[in-house]
Structure formats: structure tokens, C-alpha cells
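Researcher: We're teaching a course module on how sequence relates to structure. For the next exercise, students receive a sequence and then see the predicted structure as C-alpha cells, so they can try to spot secondary structure elements on their own. Here is the exercise chain.
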Amino acid sequence: MWGANLPADRAADFKHDHRVALALGRRPRALENLTHQPWEGEAGAKRKDRLERRLQQLVCSGKVALDRA
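Model: And here is the predicted structure for the students to work with:
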């Protein structure tokens, strides 16, 4: 959760991330859209980043509606 205190020795394990990708139209400074996300794991930032790129491609190509992505 955004604003949660992370121990200094664990900070590198997390990314400040947007819940809804900016490429899909979310406001960049909306605090409710920010979170600490672990880099690794099933719900990790690395996996989410790949999904965000794919959704952006699908939206831009007209294959998926923005509100569905």
C-alpha cells in the first residue's frame, strides 16, 4: 500500500507502481493509483509490466476496448 513504511533493507525488493497503467489513461499523480509492488512473484511488477505492455498494444490496435483493458 502506498505510504506504508518499508524496512530499508527491503526497499530494493519493491517498486513504486501504478495500479492502473499510465499508458491506459490513468492520471500520473493520483495517489490512490500508487502502491508498493514486489518485483517478483505471481503478482509482481515484472509480470504486471509485461501485461501492461500487452494491454496497451491491444487497446492501440483496437482489439480491446480501453474500459475492458
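Model: If you want an answer key for the exercise: The chain is about 25% helix and 15% strand. Helices lie at 45-60.
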